[in-house]
Specification:
Distance between the termini of chain A: 32 Å
Shape of chain A: globular
Strand content of chain A: over 45%
Helix content of chain B: under 10%
Number of strands of chain B: 11
Largest sheet of chain A: 7 strands, mixed
Order of helices and strands of chain A: EEEEEEEEEEE
Number of helices of chain B: 0
Structural class of chain A: mainly beta
Number of helices of chain A: 0
Oligomer: heterodimer
Shape of chain B: globular
Radius of gyration of chain A: 13 Å
Radius of gyration of chain B: 14 Å
Strand content of chain B: over 45%
Distance between the termini of chain B: 41 Å
Helix content of chain A: under 10%
C-alpha cells in the first residue's frame, strides 16, 4: 500500500444508520485532514489532527464525529446524517501541519449517498 | 473573509491548444498557493508556489505567482486528452489557525 488509502470507496446509508469512514496514510506524516466535496462547491475543510490531537473543527455538525487513534489512522463516524450530507469525503495528510507550507496528499475519497 | 476564485469555471479546447487557468485570492497571512489536478476522485498535487515571479515547470505545465496582484496562473501547452480534469487552486493562510482555502476549480475538457 502506498500513499493515503480510504475505505469504503462507496457508501449508501439511511438517515438512521451509523457508519464509519476510515483513512490510513503510509507516508509517515503527522497531520491528517477530513474534507467534504459537494457538487459545484469548493472543498470544505472539516477536521484537522496534528500528532493525534484535534486542532481544528470548522463548525461541523455533531453528526460527524472524528477519531484519530494514532498518526497513521483517521476515522469519521457518521450518525443520523441528512441527504444534504451526500458528498465525496476526502482524507489528506501532510508531514507537518498547514502553516509550514506543507503539501497535502489526498486519498481516493469515499463517495457517500444518504437516502 | 478569505476566498479563492478560479476562472474560467469550465473550458473546452482541442488537442494541441494552450490554456491558461486563473486563480485569484484574498487570504489573511498568505503562506503558499497550491495547484492540484483532480480527475476522478482524489486531487493530485501539481505545484506549490511561495515566491512571486518564479515560474515552476513540470513538462507541459507551468505556473507562476504574483503576490502583489494576488493571483496565480497555470499554463498547459500542447494539451492532450489526458489533461481533461478539474484543476483546483488552494491557498494556505493564517487567521487564528492555519488552513487551506480551495477554489471551486476549473473543469478542463480537451477534445481529440
Amino acid at each position: 500500500e502506498t500513499g493515503v488509502t480510504q475505505t469504503p470507496r462507496h457508501l449508501v446509508m439511511g438517515m438512521t444508520n451509523k457508519k464509519s469512514l476510515k483513512c490510513e496514510q503510509h507516508l509517515g506524516h503527522n497531520a491528517m485532514y477530513w474534507y467534504k466535496q459537494s457538487a459545484k462547491k469548493p472543498l470544505e475543510l472539516m477536521f484537522v489532527y496534528n500528532f493525534k490531537e484535534q486542532t481544528e473543527n470548522n463548525s461541523v455538525p455533531s453528526r460527524f464525529s472524528p477519531e484519530c487513534p494514532n498518526s497513521s489512522h483517521l476515522f469519521l463516524h457518521l450518525h443520523t446524517l441528512q441527504p444534504e450530507d451526500s458528498a465525496l469525503y476526502l482524507c489528506a495528510s501532510s508531514q507537518a501541519l498547514a502553516g509550514a507550507s506543507e503539501t497535502q496528499y489526498f486519498g481516493p475519497g469515499t463517495r457517500l449517498l444518504v437516502l | 473573509e478569505d476566498k479563492v476564485v478560479q476562472s474560467p469555471l469550465s473550458l473546452v479546447v482541442h488537442e494541441g491548444d494552450t490554456v491558461t487557468l486563473n486563480c485569484s485570492y484574498e487570504v489573511t497571512n498568505f503562506r503558499s498557493l497550491l495547484w492540484y489536478k483532480q480527475e476522478k476522485k482524489a486531487p493530485t498535487f501539481l505545484f506549490m508556489l511561495t515566491s512571486s515571479g518564479i515560474e515552476k515547470k513540470s513538462g507541459r505545465l507551468s505556473s507562476i505567482l504574483d503576490k502583489k496582484e494576488l493571483f496565480s496562473i497555470l499554463n498547459i501547452t500542447a494539451t492532450q486528452t489526458g489533461d481533461s480534469a478539474v484543476y483546483l487552486c488552494a491557498v494556505e493562510g493564517f487567521s487564528g489557525t492555519y488552513k487551506y482555502i480551495f477554489g471551486t476549480g476549473t473543469r478542463l475538457k480537451v477534445l481529440a
